[in-house]
Amino acid sequence: MTVYPQFPDEQSGEGEFTRQADAFRDYVTSTGSSGYPAAAGRYHLYVSWACPWAHRTIIVRKLKRLEGIIGLTSVDPIRDERGWAFREGPGHSLDPVNGFHFLSEAYKATDPHYVGRITVPALWDRVTKRIVTNSDDDLMRIFNSEFNRFTESSIDLYPEGLRKEIDELNTFLYENVNDGVYRAGFATSQPAYERAVRRLFDALDILDARLAHQRYLFGSEFVESDWRLFVTLVRFDAVYHGHFKCNLRRIIDYPSLFGYLKDLYQTDGIAETVNFDHIKRHYYVTHDDINPTRIVPLGPDQDLSTPHGRARLG
């Protein structure tokens, strides 16, 4: 039997998924010192509601009240061999900025020689007509701080006094949880899969214990690490548990993590950033090497709007 990896160029000889690096890493600054000054209406964010990496940037844009400052267009959740596509449909649309049919056109416009995988999110600059960055890490920080003069939101997701600790936890979350589910789901050997799954659930056990006595990862206020974790947790029982075989436990089986997930989901504006239809159809239909029938499951039957009981933790 021949095993076909989901992304052949990102697969090791041992069957491990090794994610490609971000292609574009320019930066928008409040002063314009980078060559990309923060400005209302200049930048447009291309995303997928299905993608957790894009979801992070959607959330920060929402929390920082930048919807009127930075435009947003979502691609179709079904990705084929041509990549992410702009089509009319529920929750997604044609490209209103450039008239692109595929996101790959934005990549080629930025670098005609680009040969890597086309990913979301991507921040487009209307002035230079190129992608500034496709790094969700950078975009979370850019939206958090560089557009402050355009918003009344005082939220700071990367407070100076916690930056070292946030960076350390972000690395832990990425390696074991955020990318960990993909390392399990895209593994093409039993040892690679088992290593990823064991690391994933060891990390979830640690996080559940950490959240047993405090409302958020760093205490009484959420920071960017909470939203990095949230985008994986909210997809876990619906997709990663079954589709990626991360099935030792579900998030609903963790008393602290499940309450924490509901708490974040019920934060003002966040529920409207979660599109389970796009999430489930993207994974189960697009990853046909994993799910060749492309059948999208009806479940799970979960309600994230029920009381979470986390406020008492302060």
UniProtKB/TrEMBL annotation:
Q: Name the keywords, alphabetized.
A: Transferase
Q: Name one GO cellular component term.
A: cytoplasm
Which positions make up the signal peptide?
none
Identify the residues that bind glutathione: W84, R117, I118, T119, V120
Under the heading InterPro entries, the entry gives: Glutathione-S-Trfase_C_sf, Glutathione_S-Trfase, GST_Omega-like_C, GST_Omega/GSH, Thioredoxin-like_sf
Among Pfam families, the record links this protein to: GST_C_2
The record places the active site at C51 (nucleophile), Y182 (proton donor/acceptor)
Gene3D superfamilies in the cross-refs: 1.20.1050.10, Glutaredoxin
CDD domains, per database record: GST_C_Omega_like (cd03190)
GO molecular function per UniProt: glutathione transferase activity
Q: Which residue numbers mark the site Lowers pKa of active site Cys?
A: Y240, Y283
This protein is called S-transferase
Task: Write down the species.
Answer: Nitrospira lenta
**Gene encoding it?**
yqjG
